[in-house]
Amino acid sequence: MRLPDFEGWAIFAKVAECGSFARAADEVQLSRPTVSKAVSRLEQTLGVALFNRTSRQLSLTEEGRALLGHASRMLGAAQSAETEAMEGTARLSGPIRLAAPMCFGVHHVAPLLPAFLRQYPGIDILADFSDTAVDLVADGFDLALRIASLADSSLRARKLCPVRLLLVAAPFWLAEVGRPQHPRDLVGRKGFVYTNTAAPGTLRFQHGQTGEDFVLSQAARMRSNNAEAFLPVLREGLGYGLFPAFMVHSALMAGEVEVILPDWQVASIALYLVTPPSPLRSARVNVFMNYLTDRFLAPTWL
């Protein structure tokens, strides 16, 4: 379906309001030929003359008078929409749709929201905390926090901070099975397998000094699509697992778990702020992005 000639209708309304092509051209900041051509194009589309033109006078035809109300309403609606959008930007009001991983969202994003919402009472937050990756564009999100080694995409990404992945176990487990010196010592030992990855249970290690690589295929004592579900059994010494530092920081500080194989690392990941491809964002989203960026410059769990 062909769209209406919105420009032609708007210029027709302006010419009728100003009573002159020249004054209308000055009003809308277009050249006089552009204004004249827009009206002529609309007349050709409609199959009627909108104005009676003479060298000295311009007046509406009967058809022009009948259609002027429609044109004025279209122009008024567009002007109202622009005014509303600009006022909303100035007021920093309206909703922000945010997506974040479940555990990180609940424990590290949600606590930051009260201060932001108090500072900007006109802004509302619609938070979706889930370990399922959302489609920002298709699902209508303004931004997302992602913890990953980010793949190339059309999305725009801002790195907030690195996220260390730590191999940990409880002291009870280490006392029972012994402290591993090499990833191969974990072969056959049952641990916790996070299933929301491309290759669940496959851990790729590299020694920090020698560069030696080793791929460990975990035997699973427990599998889950939510890594936080492993924490109770981890603390009870029922296995080992690879966790982001923010998830086990408090347990490490309390001595409930210990880092094992500290000389071996897995591929680095980071916390990213991801937005749709368009560089145009509302002022409220920009303010929220800057707020989150400042809060994650130096998190306690780094």
TrEMBL record:
Signal peptide: none annotated. InterPro entries: LysR-type_TF_proteobact-type, LysR_HTH_N, LysR_subst-bd, WH-like_DNA-bd_sf, WH_DNA-bd_sf. Keywords: DNA-binding, Transcription, Transcription regulation. SUPFAM superfamilies: Periplasmic binding protein-like II (SSF53850), Winged helix' DNA-binding domain (SSF46785). Residues 4-61 form the HTH lysR-type domain. GO terms for molecular function: DNA-binding transcription factor activity; sequence-specific DNA binding. GO terms for biological process: DNA-templated transcription. Gene3D superfamilies: 3.40.190.290, Winged helix-like DNA-binding domain superfamily/Winged helix DNA-binding domain. Belongs to the LysR transcriptional regulatory family. PANTHER family: HTH-TYPE TRANSCRIPTIONAL ACTIVATOR TTDR-RELATED, HTH-TYPE TRANSCRIPTIONAL REGULATOR. This is LysR family transcriptional regulator. It comes from Acetobacter vaccinii.
